[in-house]
User: Which sequence fits this backbone?
């Protein structure tokens, strides 16, 4: 997997905005949900926060506010059906650990930013919340959040588009490439994820901007 790519920074900054936000109260609508996720900025996970604390905070966020099962199943695509139950279970665990560590590793590099919700629109069962990440230096980053009701009065993030690039679609393409380059065996992807988590590189594959 590529070790370092430009889009990863933008995505990590977005997650940083979300991690700092209070999660104690359910948002009344999708726009408020996204606004709440970004309202506190990234100070609480900035350079002065220990790496393990950053990982712990992001793990709580990812599991609480993302539809992890749906994202993981989408990312593995058609190969899910040919995995054994044991491989499926391992993939879900590795996918979560890999995503959490990969993005958390990047969070400390950012100082301050603000997220501004600019509008919403329906998209099937989902709602797309349009927003911009306003940086101290650099042009705004366009973020489109796909969210869906979670059945308990709240919402879950199912995908984030960064300047019109789908994060989960990009991850699916990269996973498929790894499997196809290794004889169509999903076990090859599991081996790569294990290797990444052992410290042989932890940046998720994202397209260059």
Assistant:
């Amino acid at each position: 997997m590529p070790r370092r790519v430009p889009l990863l920074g933008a995505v990590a900054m977005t997650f940083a905005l979300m991690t700092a936000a209070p999660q104690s109260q359910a948002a009344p609508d999708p726009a408020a949900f996204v606004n709440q996720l970004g309202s506190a900025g990234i100070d609480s996970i900035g350079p002065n926060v220990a790496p393990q604390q950053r990982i712990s905070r992001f793990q709580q966020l990812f599991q609480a506010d993302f539809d992890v099962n749906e994202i993981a199943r989408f990312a593995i695509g058609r190969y899910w059906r040919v995995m054994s139950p044991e491989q499926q279970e391992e993939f879900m665990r590795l996918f979560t650990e890999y995503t959490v560590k990969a993005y958390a590793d990047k969070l400390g590099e950012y100082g301050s930013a603000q997220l501004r919700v600019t509008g919403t629109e329906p998209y099937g069962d989902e709602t797309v919340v349009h927003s911009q990440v306003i940086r101290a230096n650099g042009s705004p980053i366009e973020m489109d959040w796909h969210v869906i009701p979670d059945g308990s009065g709240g919402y879950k993030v199912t995908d984030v588009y960064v300047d019109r690039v789908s994060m989960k679609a990009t991850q699916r393409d990269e996973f498929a490439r790894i499997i196809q380059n290794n004889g169509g065996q999903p076990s090859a992807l599991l081996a790569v994820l294990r290797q990444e988590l052992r410290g042989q590189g932890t940046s998720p594959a994202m397209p260059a901007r």
Q: What stands out?
A: Helices lie at 6-19, 30-38, 51-65, 68-76, 85-107, 167-180, 186-197. The domain at 6-173+187-197 is CATH 3.10.450.710 (Nuclear Transport Factor 2; Chain: A,). Residues 1-6, 200-209 have pLDDT under 50 and may be disordered. The beta strands are 113-123, 126-135, 141-149, 155-162, 165-166.
